[in-house]
Write a structure and sequence with these properties.
Layout: E1 9-13, H1 17-29, E2 33-37, H2 40-46, E3 55-59, H3 67-76, E4 83-87, H4 92-100, E5 105-108, H5 113-134, E6 140-143, E7 146-149, E8 154-157, E9 160-162, H6 166-177, E10 182-184, H7 185-193, H8 201-215, E11 225-228, E12 232-235
Parallel strand pairs: 1-2, 1-3, 3-4, 4-5
Antiparallel strand pairs: 6-7, 7-8, 8-9, 10-12, 11-12
Length: about 250
């Protein structure tokens, strides 16, 4: 008996026919209903509303578009179906590129089938948990003149509405969950980007700079997102903006 409910639907986007057929067969053994697309164009057609896929297994190397671009375009259309990327490129930069493009997980080829099956099942569980969380009372953050509703992704600074990327919101949420605590770059990379190993210092620092530009009265002299020399950063929600009066 399937452990995944009533045949959850998966879309496998893979142009290597033998691998696509093997993935389809094994996922169907696990109780999924599986469609296969061999190109970005075909996948885009299958994902047109009202598609009801629970997850997408997406190869990076497609004949007409790379998986990074496809995933980014998918997110820009407002489609947030969980995506697991498959690629022969397993370096940290490639994993970071995939996550920044909007992927939820990343698996390098060659991979063990059991791990792929487990990761897809985990994606579905996390998606179900997120939907359950969204059904609960709204989660909000206020600091300075900033108001953030993580559930609706509504962000306001004074009377101005901002549109943050998913990763900017994830980073802000993690800071909100850990106020006044020093967070290392390694912790931020692992918890927000879900990437372990060598720390991509430039990536983390660039995202902190984005938050400062969005929310600090003076990004060059931050009071909310404070650098801790040689360590990382600290979010101080109760900080008072510095007066500019003489």
């Amino acid at each position: 008996m399937s452990q995944h409910g009533a045949e959850p639907r998966l879309l496998v986007v893979e142009d290597e026919s033998n691998l696509a057929a093997a993935l389809k067969l094994n996922f169907e053994f696990e109780g999924y209903h599986v469609d296969v697309a061999c190109s970005g164009k075909e996948a885009g057609r299958l994902l047109m509303p009202p598609s009801s896929y629970r997850a997408i297994v997406l190869d990076v190397m497609l004949p007409d578009i790379d998986g990074f671009t496809f995933c980014q375009k998918l997110r820009e259309t407002g489609n947030y179906t969980p995506v697991l990327m498959l690629t022969a490129l397993g370096g940290i930069d490639e994993r970071v590129n995939g996550l920044q493009a909007g992927a939820d997980d990343y698996l390098a080829k060659p991979f063990e089938l059991s791990e792929l099956l487990a990761r897809v099942a985990s994606l579905l569980r996390r998606h179900d948990w997120e939907r359950a969380r969204l059904a609960q009372p709204k989660s909000e953050l206020r600091f300075g003149s900033v108001q953030v509703d993580f559930d609706t992704q509504q962000v306001h600074v004074a009377d101005k509405q901002l549109r943050l990327t998913r990763l900017e919101l994830d980073l802000l949420r993690y800071f909100a969950q850990n106020p006044d605590r020093v967070l290392t770059r390694q912790e931020l990379q692992e918890k927000v980007w879900q990437v372990s190993g060598e720390v991509n210092t430039r990536m983390v620092d660039n995202f902190i700079m984005r938050l400062r530009r969005h929310f600090e009265p003076d990004p060059a002299d931050p009071v909310f997102f404070v650098s801790m020399r040689g360590t990382g950063y600290k979010f101080v929600p109760l900080a008072q903006p510095k007066s500019r009066e003489r």
